Amino acid sequence: MRVTFTARHFKASEQLRQYAENEVKKLKKFFDGIVDCDVILTKQRANCTVEITINVHNSVLPVKETSDDFFKSIDLAVEKMERQLKKYKEKLRGHPRKKLSESIPIVKEEKEKIEQI
């Protein structure tokens, strides 16, 4: 996965770049088909905005988060991207799977019908 960083209106420290890179690379465990990732860090007065754009096969998944601290914004953006990647992966699979607890009552009902016959 190729990661590109851009800092707007400020000079990003090496520590901030390393932190963002480590957090973004953790997204690889949620979906293997990530082609590349763009991270844009923007500073406007007291607001720190992080935009993460991930290219996946034929789709683009964008996320934007703003807070008073870059580290907090990165964490929030990565959490949001995790949810988007999980949703995208489920969409590719076709339909969401039922939980085991939802499928057990159906099996019991079928067993009772068989015993009645």
Put the structure in a nutshell.
The protein has 117 residues and is an alpha+beta fold. Helix content is 45%, strand content 32%.
Describe this structure in words.
This protein has 117 residues and is an alpha+beta fold. The chain has one domain (2-116): Double Stranded RNA Binding Domain, CATH 3.30.160. The protein is built from three helices and four strands. It has helices at 14-25, 70-93, 100-116, and strands at residues 2-8, 34-44, 47-56, 59-67. The protein has a four-stranded mixed beta sheet, covered by helices on one side. β3 and β4 (59-67) form a beta hairpin. α1 runs parallel beside α2. It is elongated and about 75 Å long. The model has no long low-confidence stretch (mean pLDDT 88).
Summarize the topology:
Blueprint: E1 2-8, H1 14-25, E2 34-44, E3 47-56, E4 59-67, H2 70-93, H3 100-116
Parallel strand pairs: 1-2
Antiparallel strand pairs: 2-3, 3-4
Helix pairs in contact: 1-2
